[in-house]
Amino acid sequence: MAMDKLVSCIAVDDEPPALKLMEKYIQAIPALELKGTCNNAVDALALLNHNSIDLIFLDIQMPHILGTDFMRTLSNPPKVIFTTAYRKFAVEGFDLDAVDYLLKPISFQRFLKAVNKVLQLDLTDSKKNAIPTLAGKENKNDFIYLRNDRKNIRVNFEDILFVESLKNYIKIVTKDKTIVTKYSISTLEVALPSSFIRIHRSFIVSKNKIESLTHNFIQVGKYELPVSRSYGHEVEKVLKAK
Predict the structure, then answer these.
(1) What is the 3-state secondary structure (H, E, C) of 201-237?
(2) What is the reported pTM?
(3) Which domain holds residue 87?
């Protein structure tokens, strides 16, 4: 298929050898334009927000958040080709309308077959000029899906009381349940709407659920949450403007 424009793409993989191989393969295809590579979802989001991207080559098994879960957080996602060493994610990948699913180790022949599928698509209607933002940031969705006990659980933003960081995990406390999932609090912070505020490096709270506050603590229901010195001034400023 003749292309009027190069297919702009990025590659995301937490394994340097795999990322280097993707870069090599992409650069060997004249129809592809590599805009950048990264090894985590946060850096991938930055690339998506600063470039018009048509296609992501995305690893699934990554730290903090699975590639499939990352795609669910994007409100205007580009096309995706998943790359992984695990067959078990295949069904989930195709449920997200993936163009293809490449099982590592990936041969160039198999890579080229996947790229040819992309070249047969009409990308003009794929919202490629829209900036892919995390769901909720622009208030286009009022929920997010989080992985818990091998399931993807829908969590409504209005139900969240606060979020607590637990090293490589986060705890989301809602009005009727608590969810612990492998996720970065910084990544989730970007996904949350403006009705949430960071009060500590380990805590994000819903401004609508705050019952009282002092210089050192915020009361949310039965929970007393710490306000750190580094966030204290910003907390006061935001709440005064509320």
Answers:
(1) CCEEEEHHHCCEECCCEEEECCEEEECCHHHHHHHHH
(2) 0.53
(3) 7-125
